[in-house]
Amino acid sequence: MEFIDFDEIFNRKIAQMIEKHASEKTEEEWEDYIAEAYQKFGDTYIKKIDNTPRGYFAAMSDAELYAMLKEYLQRDLPVSDFLCEESERRGVSEELLSLLDEKEEHIVHYAINLIGSASGALPKYAKMLGSSDYDEHVKDALSDVLKERADDVVEEILPLVKTKNRPYALEILSRLKQKDERAFEALLSAFKEGENIPLYAGYLASYGDVRALPVLMEEIEREDVKFVAFQELKYAIEALGGEYTKDRDFSEDPEYQAIKAASAGADIFGGKNESKV
Q: Which of 58, 157, 190, 198 is most buried, by CB atoms within 10 Å?
């Protein structure tokens, strides 16, 4: 089907109207008018296509619809709202999922945003997360979606714990609502390795298993614990129902000094303007 930029047609007509009648409405009134006019435009007959904008997209096959979407993106144009409405009405199809296999990152990102957390896409997302074909930007987007549906992909995500995609897998597993012993052991093991204490303390807090408390308490008691790690450990302990009240002095800690300098000496302890917490 012929590519038609409906937004350009609409914007041109609106610009002409505003030029003639600008003083008749306030800025806010024009905004409301334009939004309402755009919706009406979707159902306006256009002789050139012998259809309305909404009808134009509705008449397309799935293959045609998503070929058109790709063309919008490749032309660096905003995708028509009427195309997106039609896509949402149809749900997840094989043609829509095929956009996730595109080489152009911006098309893959757009497809993820359009598909969202639809159940039919979750296995594909998990497979993409474990693939070397996608960079960290795409995997960050995938992780953001998958961690909201962690319980539905636990079996697909657990094997990734033993790969270079482990950080993504652990973040997703930390969001499980239905607890899984394999996930807890993976999170606890990562924390015990000590490579990124603040991050993995946060994951244990998010997972919510009180059995992590003794390990967190042991770590926070270390004399060499750094300021940022201490803060995250304290938060995790409290999130799991524990408490840590011992005063600690971080005045010589470079992390504390850097944070204090960045805040121009402001109170960074929520009431204590000092280095003891």
A: 157
* 239 phi-psi bin (left φ>0, alpha ψ -120 to 50, beta other): alpha
Long-range contacts (CB closer than 8 Å, 24 or more residues apart) made by 2-11 = 2/49, 3/68, 3/71, 3/75, 4/48, 4/49, 4/56, 5/77, 5/80, 6/41, 6/53, 6/56, 6/80, 6/82, 7/77, 7/78, 7/80, 7/81, 9/46, 10/37, 10/38, 10/41
| Cα separation, 161 vs 155, whole angstroms | 11
Q: What angle do CA 139, 144, 150 make, to 5 degrees?
A: 105
pTM above 0.70, yes or no: yes
Instruction: Tell me which residue has tokens 């992780």.
Output: 143
CB 75 within 8 A of CB 28: no
Residue-wise pLDDT tens digits, 156-191:
999 999 999 999 999 999 999 999 999 999 999 999
Residue 154: both structure tokens together: 């636990």
Residue 277 pLDDT grade (very low, low, confident, very high; cuts 50, 70, 90): low
Spatial contact of 72 and 41, defined as CB atoms under 8 Å apart: no
Q: What kind and span of H or E run contains 142?
A: helix 136-146
Quick check: 252 and 276 in contact, CB under 8 A?
Answer: no
